[in-house]
Fold this sequence. Notes:
Number of strands: 2
Number of helices: 9
Amino acid sequence: MKNIIINALAWLKVLCYFLILWIATIIAGTVPMLNDFIFFFTIALVMSWAFLRLENRCLASISFWPKDKKAVVDFISGLVIGIIMLIVTFILTILLTNGNWQLNPHIDPIFIAVTFLMCLWSAFVQEFIFRGYPFQELLKKYRVWVAQLLIAIPFGLMHIDKGMKTNDIILVMVSTGAGSILFGLAYIKTKNLMFPIGIHLGWNYAQELIPRTSGGKNSALVIISDSHATYNMYNVSFPYFVVILLAILTIWKIKTTNVI
């Protein structure tokens, strides 16, 4: 009975955490100036601090900054893995679509630097919000697959935009859910957020510089010249899921908490 009560309390705290974030999302939608990662990070930071304080723990216990050499190595390892994942996905997509691509002859170094910082901030905030207190709290009280599933749902919902069709919503939930499992596994294997932050950053950053479909930024490293008509759900989504699955299986095989 005691364990049931403790587990229920963990679930209620996580539910409260995301309920407050949901309310914050509604507020941000009403007040555009608040619709920013800084606002959501501040909310998550305060809630994490409050819940941890109730447990006589500190924010450092979440391990969300590179506090030692191992954490730095984990971050760099994740960054490399994320970039490689995107490059492999790009290659598979091009092979399936026969897309025409070329290196951008007019690369903007400022864009490359600013994009890195923006992607770093985005990845850090998202991993702190989802793989920080709520995920780690669930891991202490529930089986791994339960914690992974419960975090994958709000993580996927965060990526849904207004006006999306049902098929698109399902695809977003499944694809981001797979990404959430990968990031969650990265934390489980290293016991710090630096590894999932690195993977998340590497993927997002490379995706900005190496778009897999036409319509990418003209300042990216690679320009796709084909029309969107040459793409469909299969030849764009299939490479993504193949690479994500391989990454999950590879990280799953890591026996120790040392990535390198």
